[in-house]
Amino acid sequence: MRKIIIANWKLNPATLAAAQLLARRIEKVLALISSKRLGRSKKAEMVIAPPFPFLLEVGRILRRSSLGAQDVFWEEKGAYTGAVSPLMLRSLGVRYVIVGHSERRDFAHETDAEINGKIRSALAKGFFVVLCVGEKDRKKENFERFVKQELLLDFQGIPKKYSKKIIIAYEPIWAIGTGKTVRSSDLYEMVMYIRRVLFDIFGKKAAHSIPVLYGGSVNAKNANIFLEVDGVNGLLVGGASLDPEEFLGIVKSVSGV
Ligand code: PEP
Known about the structure:
The protein is of the alpha/beta class.
């Protein structure tokens, strides 16, 4: 299965000029890797998810990576001040949408019902949907049940036929932006558990074929550790994706260069 690396720029950088510069640097990194023609770089899919206002211009720069959005709204039009619809994103060349990121579940108080609406709407418009799930605290809660609940509620009523367009990012909240990371053995168990839940929701084929990524304080030094875990199909990278050198290291890990 192809590996997927998603760069989530979050609320960065501050200006369009800085976003264009970053996109150019990342493209240079990707060009460098593919010009070496080594390893399995062709099997890796790179996705860059800048903030909404930079999508169009960043999209114009990207050649070796696809454009992603950090969120999407469930309605197509109407009285929803500040919202951004799937059709608007599609018209900018966006192919991937991240949905249910823990930061949005937190500061924007996104509910599973809203996330479900976003998934429905984005899938119906042909996007790849990257659903983020993950527990807050491994010790204080039944973290497996927590993740299962998120998957069941967020995918409620989503037809099986869309499973080819679904990607899961397992992102334990305690690992996001903290420098803490999950142990390989724990990641393996969680990925297997997620696949069992996907089996219940979408059936056997989808449980094997839906890519499951890891996210949480990934950097150039540790990327390999997560990519080597059985059943992990890629990475969702936040902070380190804003640093072209770090990103180069991560892309090298996935490309086998
Ligand atoms: C993220 O943005 O989803 C993320 C995992 O961030 P970071 O890599 O900075 O922990």
